[in-house]
Amino acid sequence: MKPSIWYFDDVNLFKILCPHKYPAYKKDHSLDIYKKSDYIYFEEDQANKIYLIDSGKVKIGYYTEEGDEIVKAILTKGEIFGEKAILGVEKRSEFAQSIDNNTSICKVSKDTMYGLMRDNVSVSFKIYKFIGLRMKKLERRLQLLLFKDVKTRLLEFLNELCEEYGHDCEHTGDKVIVHPYTQKDIASLIGTSRPTLSTVMNELKEAKEISFSRKEIRFLNKNSLSVS
Predict the structure, then answer these.
(1) 55 with 99: CB under 8 angstroms?
(2) Secondary structure of residue 18 in the 3-state scheme
(3) No. of H helices and E strands in the chain?
(4) What are phi and psi of 145, to 5 degrees?
(5) Which of 20, 4, 7 has its CA nearest to residue 112?
(6) In whole angstroms, what is the distance from residue 63 CA to residue 56 CA?
(7) How many angstroms separate the CA atoms of 126 and 8, rounded?
(8) Degrees (nearest 5) of the Cα angle 32, 71, 64?
């Protein structure tokens, strides 16, 4: 199975980077709560903070000139976003929006993050590794969106979900994925509509390759995990 490109190495960055873990920075630590559909920042906002997800889900995306929404990522507990501020980017090139009713976010100023990175070599290493992996992820997503059909994009995404959320069922030998995404989330991430995603998933179900419920996808034939 290929290395993951959809998430950061199964590491909870919130636990590593949240300032309350470090006495020198604890006084600057606070958590903000966002409801579903609340925006955390908009395109063209000043990029002076980095954000850590304590709980909930956040959608990262942008709007085309025609007004269409393009989803770049859906992030969950333990992940960070707004990281381009560390690289000196002054304005946001995307929006960040809560898609849960109780999303808890730790905002870290750019200067505080620089201090954490300067004082903790392991933190600095993890941040730069994260940025590199996220760049690879976005490049791969672009390739998939441009050159692959919906079924291939879906199977590629499910491959990656297997690495993060999958386990083998001892009794049946199936590969089981218990995940936090809705069908709308998955459709957005692979660049298709929800009805089209539903059609493809039902085709795979009828072919007895998968079964699925609201939060679980089960591969009935492990060979279906391979993507051309």
Answers:
(1) no
(2) coil
(3) 6, 12
(4) -65, -35
(5) 20
(6) 23
(7) 10
(8) 110
Closest to 100 measured CA to CA, from 185, 166, 5, 7: 185
What does pTM read for this prediction? 0.69
Q: Model confidence over 23-34: pLDDT tens digits?
A: 555 565 668 999
Rounded Cα gap, residues 212 and 88, in angstroms: 43
Q: Using one digit for the tens of pLDDT, what is the confidence trace for 135-177?
A: 777 777 667 777 788 999 898 888 878 877 877 776 666 788 8
Q: How far apart are CA 135 and CA 20, in angstroms?
A: 28
Give the DSSP per-residue string, 133-188: HHHHHHHHHHHHHHH--HHHHHHHHHHHHHHHHEEE-TTT--EEEE-S--HHHHHH
